[in-house]
Amino acid sequence: MKRRRVQTFVIGLVVLCSTTTVLLALTLLTAASSPFDKAYAEQRGAHTAASFDTTKVTPEQLARTAKQPGVEAAAGPFGQAVVGIPKNWLWMAGGTLSVVGRADPAGPVDRIDLLEGRWATGTGEIVVNWSVQGSPGTEFLGTKLKTPSGATLTVVGFATSMSKSASAWVSPAQMTALHPTSAQMLYRFTKSDTEAQLSTSLERATEGLPKDALTGAQTYLTLKQAFSALVDSYLPFMTLFGILGLLVSVLIVGNVVSGAVVSGYRHIGVLKALGFTPNQVVAVYLTMLLVPALAGCVLGTLVGNALAGPMMKVAFTGIDVGRATVGEVSPWVTVACLLGMPALVLFTTLIPALRAHRLPAAQAISAGGAPRTGHGLRVQRMLGATRLPRPVSLGMGQPFARPARTLLTLAAIVLGVTTVTLSTGLTSTLVAYGNVGKEDGAARIQVTTGGSGDDTTAPRLSDAQIEARLSALPGAKGVRARAFSQASMTGQHQSVFADFYRGDNSLYEHTIVKGRAPKAAGEIVAGPAFLTQRGLKIGDRTTLELNGKKITATVVGQVIEGNARALEATWDTLTHLAPNAHATEYTVRLAPDADARAYAEAAGKLDPAVHASVLDPGNAGTATVIAFSTVFTVLLTLVSSLGVFNTVLLNTRERRRDLGMLKSIGMTPRQVILMTVTSVAGLGAVGALLGIPLGIAAHRLVVDNVGVVDFPEYMKDVWHAPQLAAMLLAGVTIAVLGALIPARTAARTTIAAVLHTE
């Protein structure tokens, strides 16, 4: 190891990078399910939460469903009602709250975890489902809620339910006063692995009930999908880079070890001549390779564990995780990396090390003393007969002398080019995604009315007046008004966020990927995560409820992305549900040559309660993925170049005698460098031709499997002649960068130092 410092460093660095990427990919994979499953099992979460129309079914009939075949456990029936809430109550958007009447938080199904305060046991008390990580704090206990019916409810506790069975809970007596029109049953089934099994189990449990008594059902698989939605979007990206790192590790370690054995033939022969047995020789080389591999594996595991926490925090941002613990690396992942990576290196080392086991001492000592015969020499003679410059023909023939080593080096270059191509494609796609709605290059101004928290100053101007004056200010090309509210949806126990828009609809031009933009009352659009988690598709109908009013809503389109709990609708829909509602936010589209800051200042002077700011053109998620891909690309490109470096270094050491002879007959140092670089430049070009299609395929695989974003075709079709030419150059660049240092070293070697034993 002391005599082969560069080789030792290369192996340690390759294993470190590979271990880090594999650990992060495995952590994302386990984080997508393990924390949820553990927390759900601890709380005895409901496999299905079902709602029933109490005008069509009695409590006794519902209670009998708990004894049906296939029902492992059940809780209920609980009264269920929808209560209106004002804007900014406990920082919630105004709208509705799904409330369930429940005597205590315990029970055979859906054991609710009380975070602060106590359970609601009397009238006028309510426990709120806290949908944010951490504890809400006791200072919020005692908050009042005055319902539209005139009742006043006091918050006496905060709790969380992994089943998301309700937004709040009250006592059964208080629920009676709220006049519920539906009842809730919570089931755990003996067969619950798939949606089909859950559907069949629910059908058996509700067999014999009046027709249309069941008004909606939510399964735990839907919640699990929502829990891991953002993580799943990172998973294909991280897994691909993990696999690439693993493959590069195998190839480079195999190349380095094989080269160590070949370059150490004389050392092997000397060891055997001194009395070392074949097994002891193998042990020498295994130790020489495993020590840096173990060091790289341990360091890579430490780095991976350090990066996992911040990465999980980013991945789960904005997701309601309940009591699930995220951000920790599972012990089995750490153990798998600590044991698996050294085992991989050991397996890769054994193959070339066995050659040292079989090599006779006399042959090993004399190896390299005579010119090699075979395909390499014949190819060089053929190239020498051409009109190519002699250094070029000699360099082009060198890869054929060691075909196995050449193939390993070529594979490393292919993976390096694949990584660069994948990263470039992802960056182009995400840049296009980040520019959605900004294609004209003009700035966007966000205007809000009122304040936040306790500052609820109402504007002096009306909603219509504010919109009209914003449109009249110099530089404005379009104004889009927005109202935001929480609403209830048929079959959903958690409220959904609803955005209602009017005015400038040009922003929909590039955000609708399927269907069309909403135009009339009752038409809605949503992102892929919202539709998937609710089993909806374009053309499906559902019911929205707000302020005690309902409207039948039809899904008419799908946007590129969106919150898993958010939908978008027309202003006519809001008018039907809340006739007196008004916009609280406006997005102003400016002309390309307009002064954004001047417009924002002018808009802020329209009314004391109006606040205007220039929208940040950046996108945090886009920047995160680009940063990840850039880091991994640099690492894997570096490792690929190190593989080329190792190959060229071994070749020049093996050919020291040949280089001395060539210099003695007049080859200049520049010709030596040209010959050495040419020996791998061709491999770089071939590697690029093979790696580019693989990178394009990997890019399509990633962008087609991001669950929270549905990229339109124009964002995926990012490959054009300039980009492809750059990718071809990337393969040659990786090869040349790896070859330059050994080439310069070979060029500086003196004839006397090489041929002093001749």
Topology (SSEs and partners):
Blueprint: H1 5-31, H2 34-42, E1 48-53, H3 59-64, E2 71-85, E3 95-101, E4 113-117, E5 125-129, E6 144-146, E7 152-160, E8 168-170, H4 172-177, E9 182-189, H5 195-205, E10 214-219, H6 220-227, H7 229-263, H8 265-273, H9 278-315, H10 331-358, H11 361-366, H12 375-384, H13 390-397, H14 403-434, E11 444-449, H15 463-472, E12 476-489, E13 496-503, E14 512-515, E15 523-526, H16 528-533, E16 541-546, E17 549-559, E18 566-570, H17 571-577, E19 585-590, H18 596-604, E20 610-614, H19 620-654, H20 656-664, H21 669-703, H22 713-716, H23 721-748, H24 751-755
Parallel strand pairs: 3-8, 5-7, 13-18, 15-17
Antiparallel strand pairs: 1-9, 1-10, 2-3, 2-9, 4-7, 5-8, 6-7, 11-19, 11-20, 12-13, 12-16, 12-19, 14-17, 15-18, 16-17
Task: Characterise this structure.
- The chain has 758 residues and is an alpha+beta fold.
- Strands 1, 2, 3, 4, 5, 6, 7, 8, 9 and 10 form a ten-stranded mixed β-sheet that branches.
- Helix 1 (5-31) runs antiparallel to helix 19, helix 13 crosses helix 21 and helix 14 (403-434) packs across helix 23 (721-748).
List keywords for this structure.
six-stranded mixed β-barrel, elongated, 758 residues, alpha+beta
Helix content: 40-55%
Oligomer: single chain
Output the structural class. alpha+beta
Runs with pLDDT <50, length 5+? 317-324, 451-455
Taking the alpha carbons of the first and last residues, their distance comes to 29 Å
